[in-house]
Amino acid sequence: MRWQWRFGGALVTAGVLFSSALPAQAATPRATTAAKPVNCARLKCIALTFDDGPSPYTPKLLDTLAKNGVKVTFFLVGEMAERRKSVVRRMAREGHEIATHTYSHPRLTDLDTDEIADEIQGGQEVVRKITGKRPKMVRPPYGLTDEHVQSVAQYLGLPLILWSASSRDWELRRADAIAKKTISLARRDGIVLMHDIVPGTVAAMPRILKVLKQRGYTIVTVTEARRGRLPGPGETWPAR
Ligand SMILES: [Zn+2]
After folding, report:
1. pLDDT per residue as tens digits for the range 174-211
2. Given 157, 202, 203, 221, which residue has the most CB atoms within 10 angstroms?
3. 2 occurs within a structural domain
């Protein structure tokens, strides 16, 4: 099988990637970000997830999240992450969860097996090189998946993470509309789709966080929402 991918001129086999040890920086101490255990079986949890970044607006989002002591999950596009490595390092340092949204954001259902593997592994590898940690989840662009995509994700050992509620922020654009919509669709154990490439989303976050807290929500990462147990390789979650 041609389970190989090209990145930075190197041709690496999937087997080598799986077995390669993490580099030394993986052990970098995380001074202020030691995650407190969150018990979503008892708490009213909701996971906010941000796709397509990092963007020029992401640092402002990180400021808002830090100010509120909130951790979220970012699904990064590899080629965007390469352009803003310091922002990715900051996400990791501040305790956010980093997953991949592929290398270049294609419709995976239009690709052949090798291309799908290249996109997922390419996205993982960018994050690994920057943070020392390889993402353990992939969100397929546009939420597009099928049995073929699932079988490749299974081979690569990753679950496919979708969402239970969409803020539709890329359509709404205005911060007040995004805040209203996001607050209206909040549900316990929800996985909310947002985009840190949408400036209105970043502007809406202080209000969204304030209201969600008033309503008793604890904002968590996807892994925390899953009580620490991710879906199995190739599994799609939440189910549509
Ligand atoms: Zn996307």
Report:
1. 999 999 999 999 999 999 999 999 999 999 999 999 99
2. 202
3. no
Binning pLDDT at 50, 70 and 90, where does residue 32 land? very low
Structural domain count, the chain: 1
Q: What CATH number is given to the structural domain containing 129?
A: 3.20.20.370
Ligand 1 centre from 82 Cα, in Å?
16
Concerning whether 63 is annotated as a catalytic residue, the answer is: no
Ion ligand 1 neighbours, Cβ < 5 Å: 51-52, 141
Here the tokens at position 78 are 């590899």
170, β-bridge pairs: none
* 10 lies in some domain: no
Choosing from 51, 52, 118, 169, which is the catalytic residue? 51
Q: Ligand 1 centre and the CA of 124: distance in Å?
A: 15
Distance between CA atoms of 68 and 199, rounded to whole angstroms? 19
Report the range of poorest mean pLDDT among 3-17, 169-183, 220-234.
3-17
Per-residue pLDDT tens for 84-100? 999 999 999 999 999 99
The residue annotated as part of the active site, out of 101, 118, 195, 196, is: 195
Residue 116's domain comprises 37-227
Residue 51 a catalytic site member: yes
In this structure, is residue 173 part of a structural domain?
yes
In a domain, 5, yes or no: no
Q: Which two tokens stand for residue 41?
A: 């079986």
> Is residue 116 a contact partner of residue 84, using CB atoms and an 8 Å limit?
no
The sign one gets for the Cα dihedral 172, 203, 219, 35 is positive
